[in-house]
Amino acid sequence: MARKYSRKASSDVERVMKKRKAGTLRSGRSKKKVTSRKQAIAIGLSEARAEGRKVPKKASKKTAKTRKTSKKRKSSKKK
After folding, report:
1. How many CB atoms lie within 10 A of CB 25?
2. pTM
3. Which residues are CB-neighbours of 26 under 8 A, at least 6 positions away?
4. Each residue's pLDDT tens digit in the chain (79 positions)?
5. β-strand 32-33 against 26-27: which pairing, if any?
6. At residue 33, what are phi and psi to the nearest 5 degrees?
7. Under 8 Å between Cβ of 1 and 33
8. Which of 20, 14, 46, 15 lies closest to 33, judged by CA?
């Protein structure tokens, strides 16, 4: 099976994780310090995408309408 992320993308994430651990990783325009592991990974993947590395697209969020309809379907199946 093929790799989900390229090796270069993995090294980008690794570099960002080291910055987070050192306490020097900052996010976005606010330049607030990043302490969350998940946020650090997201920043690394985002930077890898910007450089054109092999990284899957961001997961799309469901809209409120699709959440409502899927909720209705689930409740109707239970009956």
Report:
1. 21
2. 0.67
3. 32, 33, 34
4. 778 888 999 999 999 999 999 999 998 889 999 999 999 999 999 999 999 988 888 777 766 666 667 666 666 666 6
5. antiparallel
6. -70, 135
7. no
8. 20
